[in-house]
Amino acid sequence: MLHSPRSTTRCYFKLYSTGGISALFAPSPRRSKTKSDDPQITTNILEILHQKPILFDVNRTSWTQRGLMEAYKELYKQTISRCTLAKLIRNAGYGWRKARRVLSSPDPNYREKVEILVKILSGLAKSELFFFLDEWGPVQVRKRGGKAYSAKDDIPKIPRHQTSRGTVALVAALSPTTNQLSWTFVTSKDTRSMMNMLEILYNQYHALSKLYVTWDAVSWHNSTALTEWLDQFNEANGKQKAGPIIELVPLPTSAQFLNVIEGVLSGMTRAVINNSDYCSAEDMKLAISRHFTERNNIFKVNPRRAGKAIWEADFFRGLDAFKKGD
């Protein structure tokens, strides 16, 4: 009649025999407190978790549940189940997290260089422009992969071994105030290619009084030959009383996150290089040039400064965040 197991029925009968109907229908007693609800055990486990496993003679660089159980038993002379441990750690807000690599600068003069950069950007005159320079490539012309819409069962395949149809490399300069890009294709990334880009900027913005340029701190960007050439170039142009003076503004070492043009080149790669299958280097160059030209036209019609973080972040109070790449 009750449709209950015999053991449950016997328990009901025992309650009724000893305490009557009131005992039979009395509320169930509260569940006893378990270890996973004990705040002191939680504190002890987290204290162990915040220490290195090697301090407990555990030859690992990170904790495992079994290691924590053994360390807890050794330190507090008390056992704890794996289920209780997992629940306790989860309730405390802890879980497995993979370390995230961020860009950071080891330059000891990081703060000073960034302050100079911000000061120049915020104080540009109407006859002055600032440019971020960078190289891209060389990239082989072949069938390339990337993210694209495809049918569920139709996964694009890229041959591992392909015959190269040529290589493409370029040097580009971006003005963060006008959001206009200048570029030239080069055969190699070296000092000569940077000289060519500076000459292009000089001719393109000949009516201005000064051009500030900055780039990553790689060896050929800071070579003696380049700095001597630029000094001679400025000296010769200064005698003509026409054309802009070009001034270098050094970026901190390993501070690619401050070079605004990096994002523009990355966007170009996603747009016209990924998923491409150009027949020749000329076809790839044509697609790149068309992409940059269309981009320049968009920002001529809809003016907007480049480098949102550069303009909106408070460098003087947030330099430490930028140093960590945030």
Task: Outline the structure in words.
- The protein is an alpha/beta fold.
- The chain folds into two domains: 34-99, no CATH class; 110-147 and 164-323, Nucleotidyltransferase, domain 5 (2-Layer Sandwich).
- It has helices spanning 6-24, 39-49, 65-76, 82-91, 110-122, 191-204, 224-240, 261-273, 281-301, 308-312, 315-323; strands at 128-140, 167-174, 181-186, 210-214, 245-248.
- The protein has a five-stranded mixed beta sheet, sandwiched between helices.
- A hairpin with a 6-residue loop joins strand 2 and strand 3 (181-186).
- The model is unreliable at 315-326 (pLDDT under 50).
CATH class membership of the largest domain: Alpha Beta
Task: Output the strand order for the largest sheet.
Answer: 3-2-1-4-5
CATH topology annotation of the largest domain: Nucleotidyltransferase, domain 5
Strand content: 5-15%
Please trace the helix and strand order, writing H or E for each element: HHHHHEEEHEHEHHHH
* Strand elements, count: 5
Query: How large is the count of helical segments?
Result: 11
N-to-C span = 69 Å
The CATH superfamily of the largest domain is identified as Ribonuclease H-like superfamily/Ribonuclease H
Mean pLDDT: 84
Helix content estimate: 40-55%
Low-pLDDT residue spans: 315-326
Instruction: Tell me the Rg in angstroms.
Output: 33 Å
Question: Quick one: overall form?
Answer: elongated
Largest sheet: 5 strands, mixed
| Whole-number tally of structural domains | 2
Query: Strand pairing plus helix content: what structural class?
Result: alpha/beta
Q: Which CATH architecture of the largest domain? A: 2-Layer Sandwich
